[in-house]
């Protein structure tokens, strides 16, 4: 198993990074590895020289390869690798995603020495081969097999004739260089729920729907802090979307304010003439690394007698939008109780889900709240919040109804690290709502697209938020955030939280939104 010019590292977990192929030297092709494996793995290639030829060789000759990622600067690559290995020391937290690692270090140096030193500290998970050593293929077979079969996720590539770049989400760089100065779209704005002194001062995760001649809104509500153990789900209704009823309860705190259980509103939608609300019931974070311990997605239905609990819709699941129909099946982007990122589709005729780990490469970034839509060609788009705070949205696509996905790419679209909302209008245009000011969640802005790939004509929906009235954990001052939207009667109705205190709705004429 001799591979000239290559130092081979085989890990039982996955690393997702690839250095830039910026050299003229062409190393000999890598030998096929695990060619008969029924599932795929991922490969990290680092260092110089690493030409396009070897990258192509890996992609074409190694059927198990699912992920190649390229960085522009070698120094950045080294820093990321060191950070990755340092994070793994003692914790083993990244074990859920590592598979196979192939590293080319062309020369000795401080960086190479640091990497080798770090690797030696986690040798229980690494098989290290220096240049010139003879690797016994049989001794590696079991480890390699385990690596290739663990948490494997096939990935997709762009069609060969596709000229559009998923990273070019914003039509032109600089369009959002000064979001506060964008034109403000005229609107009708109403207060759905206003926080009061000594009452329920945290309100977020709002959703809107139209059913049986009325607008409906749901949201998470807590006394003071975000995701506290007293958090539950409220709702309100309005005949005209302007004057709202007093709030009621969709799902109350099941174990009292001192108990660990809490609700997080997760969606509101109409299907087959019925109104459904989604909520994630969980115990919050624990000392074992769980963000939403014992998370269960519960579906509730509005009936003449009020909200009826239909039971667990999906186990170990946190979602941020209602399900989307893809080829007749419910589709979700969800995260499990440890915040790992998945896509899921309902199984035909069964109350079960087909859940797939989305191809990604932590710890470079952490994919978080994600909106989705299908374009006119049937391509599925994910617009992803980057929790690692690159201040840019990420973009991933599927060309086969969600069977496989492209690796998420960092786009040129600025973001304040908040939930976004994207969708398609009845006139065929697409919209994207987010907070494009990198330093905060004000303004709340919108842009439009003709093909669903590239967005332009940005405008502000809300700008100049008031000061926060009440303190609270994880509450943002001067902010409009966590929007959800529906189209109704020629308007786009957008619901959002102001300072994580108040829930508001604004209605915009669609003609004004799409005007260039």
From TrEMBL:
Which parts of the sequence belong to the Sialidase domain? 214-491
Answer whether the UniProt record assigns the keyword Signal to this protein: yes
* Top-rank taxon: Bacteria
Instruction: State the CDD domains in the record.
Output: Sialidase_non-viral
The UniProt keyword set, sorted, is: Signal
Kindly give the Pfam families that the UniProt entry links to this protein.
BNR_2 (PF13088)
Q: Does the keyword Transferase apply?
A: no
Signal sequence residues: 1-22
Which named protein is this?
Answer: BNR repeat protein
Q: Write down the species.
A: Prosthecobacter fusiformis
């Amino acid at each position: 198993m001799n591979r000239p010019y290559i130092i081979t590292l085989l890990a039982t977990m996955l690393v997702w990074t690839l250095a830039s192929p910026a050299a003229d030297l062409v190393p000999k092709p890598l030998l096929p590895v695990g060619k008969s494996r029924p599932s795929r793995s991922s490969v990290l290639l680092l260092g110089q020289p690493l030409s396009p030829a070897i990258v192509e060789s890996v992609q074409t000759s190694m059927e198990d390869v699912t992920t190649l990622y390229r960085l522009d600067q070698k120094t950045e690559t080294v820093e990321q690798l060191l950070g990755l290995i340092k994070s793994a020391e003692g914790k083993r937290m990244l074990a859920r995603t590592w598979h196979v690692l192939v590293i080319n270090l062309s020369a000795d140096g401080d960086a190479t020495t640091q990497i080798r030193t770090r690797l030696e500290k986690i040798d229980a998970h690494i098989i290290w081969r220096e240049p010139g050593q003879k690797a016994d293929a049989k001794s590696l077979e079991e480890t390699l097999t385990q690596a290739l079969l663990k948490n494997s996720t096939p990935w997709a590539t762009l069609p060969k004739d596709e000229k559009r770049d998923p990273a070019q989400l914003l039509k032109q760089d600089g369009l959002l260089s000064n979001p506060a100065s964008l034109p403000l779209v005229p609107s009708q704005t109403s207060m759905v729920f206003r926080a009061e002194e000594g009452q329920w001062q945290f309100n977020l995760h709002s959703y809107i729907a139209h059913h049986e001649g009325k607008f409906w809104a749901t949201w998470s509500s807590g006394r003071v802090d975000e995701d506290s153990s007293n958090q539950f789900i409220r709702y309100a209704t309005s005949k005209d979307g302007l004057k709202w009823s007093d709030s009621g309860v969709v799902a109350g705190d099941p174990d009292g304010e001192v108990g660990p259980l809490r609700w997080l509103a997760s969606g509101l939608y109409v299907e087959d003439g019925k109104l459904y609300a989604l909520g994630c019931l969980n115990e919050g974070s624990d000392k074992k690394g769980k963000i939403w311990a014992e998370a269960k997605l519960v579906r509730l239905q509005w009936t003449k007698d009020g909200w009826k609990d239909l039971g667990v819709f999906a186990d170990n699941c946190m979602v941020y939008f209602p399900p989307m129909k893809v080829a007749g099946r419910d589709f979700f982007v969800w995260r499990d109780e440890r915040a790992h990122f998945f896509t899921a589709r309902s199984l035909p005729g069964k109350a079960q889900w087909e859940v797939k780990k989305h191809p990604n490469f932590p710890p470079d970034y952490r994919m978080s709240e994600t909106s989705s839509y299908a374009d006119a060609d049937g391509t599925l788009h994910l617009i992803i919040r980057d929790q690692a705070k690159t201040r840019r949205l990420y973009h991933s696509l599927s060309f086969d109804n969600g069977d496989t996905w492209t690796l998420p790419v960092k786009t040129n679209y600025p973001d304040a690290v908040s939930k976004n909302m994207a969708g398609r209008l009845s006139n065929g245009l697409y919209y994207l709502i987010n907070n494009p000011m990198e330093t905060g969640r004000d303004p709340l802005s919108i842009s439009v697209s003709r093909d669903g790939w590239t967005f332009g004509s940005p405008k502000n929906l809300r700008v100049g938020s008031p000061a926060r009235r009440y303190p609270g954990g994880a509450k943002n001052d001067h902010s409009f955030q966590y929007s959800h939207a529906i189209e109704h009667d020629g308007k786009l109705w957008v619901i959002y939280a102001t300072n994580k205190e108040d829930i508001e709705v604004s209605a915009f004429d669609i003609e004004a939104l799409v005007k260039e």
